[in-house]
């Protein structure tokens, strides 16, 4: 079996150096990061093109690890890209509710409405019951619509550095389990 390329897909702000996504990349030099021109003012077409190019350049199958706004990016990309078949799995963490002005800033709504298609690859959504960017019921609804499994973590906030998540060993375990099942 060919080991998939892991693509880290940061959300709004780009997952700084203390974010688990950046820490995981530091520990796994074979993994790659999807880069965006502007992490603070997303343009949907640019973000979609950057993800599509990263998947195209990856050797072999791909596993996506997205956080926050980039969960919506991954789902929108899967809806529109001919390359979605190269992806074998996705870990979607803390999906930002791009439809909700009460939960997300205006710049996050570039991917609204949130797509609700069944994803063509195995997916695990990880959410918190107190995430300021998505209500737990909405996260559960997204997971159901996407045909994904859901792991709900109590009291985890936005599952980022500001919520106290550094290396996030549980996330690493969840990713490993997802990849073992592919």
From TrEMBL:
GO molecular function: hydrolase activity
Domain of life: Bacteria
Designated name of the protein: Alpha/beta hydrolase
Record Pfam families: Ser_hydrolase
Organism from which the protein derives: Tistrella mobilis (strain KA081020-065)
Phylogenetic placement of the source organism: Bacteria, Pseudomonadati, Pseudomonadota, Alphaproteobacteria, Geminicoccales
SUPFAM superfamilies hit by this protein: alpha/beta-Hydrolases
InterPro entries: AB_hydrolase_fold (IPR029058), RBBP9/YdeN (IPR010662)
């Amino acid at each position: 079996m060919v080991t998939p390329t892991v693509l880290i897909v940061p959300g709004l702000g780009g997952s700084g150096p203390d974010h688990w996504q950046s820490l995981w990349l530091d520990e796994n030099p074979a993994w790659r990061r999807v880069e965006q021109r502007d992490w603070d003012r997303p343009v949907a077409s640019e973000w979609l093109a950057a993800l599509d190019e990263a998947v195209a350049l990856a050797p072999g199958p791909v596993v996506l690890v997205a956080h926050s706004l980039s969960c919506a990016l991954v789902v929108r990309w899967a809806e529109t890209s001919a390359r979605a078949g190269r992806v074998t799995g996705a870990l979607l963490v803390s999906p930002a509710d791009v439809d909700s002005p009460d939960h997300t800033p205006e710049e996050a709504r570039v991917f609204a409405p949130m797509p609700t298609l069944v994803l063509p690859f195995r997916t695990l959504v990880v959410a918190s019951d107190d995430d300021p960017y998505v209500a737990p019921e909405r996260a559960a609804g997204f997971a159901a619509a996407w045909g994904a499994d859901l792991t709900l973590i109590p009291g985890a906030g936005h599952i980022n550095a500001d919520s106290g998540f550094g290396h996030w060993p549980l996330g690493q375990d969840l990713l490993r389990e997802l990849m073992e099942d592919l």
